[in-house]
Write a structure and sequence with these properties.
single chain; 138 residues; alpha+beta; 3-stranded antiparallel sheet; flat
Length: 138
């Protein structure tokens, strides 16, 4: 049972990606996608703590409406200011959590992760933000 749940989740995720890529929900396409999802090799990693994974997933989902709000602010902004920031990193030993962190950060418009600093404890982030009144004054 412990191996069945990860197999089902990864197969469902791969099948969902297949459907998004092919844009076809016919029975034959779903069968082909299922076969492909089952034949692709699986990564071997240690089990993820559910609480940490859930927290990272929720943070990623909350980043979607935030990205839309930032995109609207950037469209309406007359000028942009470049900034470098840093943000705490999650456990670097778990590649999925690193991926979810980087995905969440780079999902927002004009934001990218430049790398790690402080021995891998913080992400260095480059971002463009709308200029505030203080930034535009000489």
């Amino acid at each position: 049972m412990r191996r069945l749940l990860p197999l089902l989740l990864s197969t469902a995720f791969r099948l969902a990606l297949w459907c998004l890529l092919t844009s076809d929900l016919s029975r034959l396409n779903l069968l082909i996608g299922l076969v492909v999802a089952l034949l692709l090799p699986r990564a071997r990693s240690r089990p993820l703590p559910v609480r940490v994974l859930l927290k990272a997933t929720v943070r990623g989902l909350l980043a979607i409406p935030q990205a839309f709000a930032e995109a609207l602010r950037l469209v309406m902004a007359p000028a942009m200011v470049e900034r470098e920031d840093s943000e705490p990193a999650t456990d670097r030993a778990l590649p999925l959590l690193v991926f979810l962190d980087v995905f969440r950060i780079t999902l927002t418009p004009f934001t990218i992760v430049l790398g790690l600093e402080d021995g891998g404890r913080r992400y260095r982030i480059h971002t463009l933000t709308p200029a505030s009144k203080e930034d535009s004054e000489p």
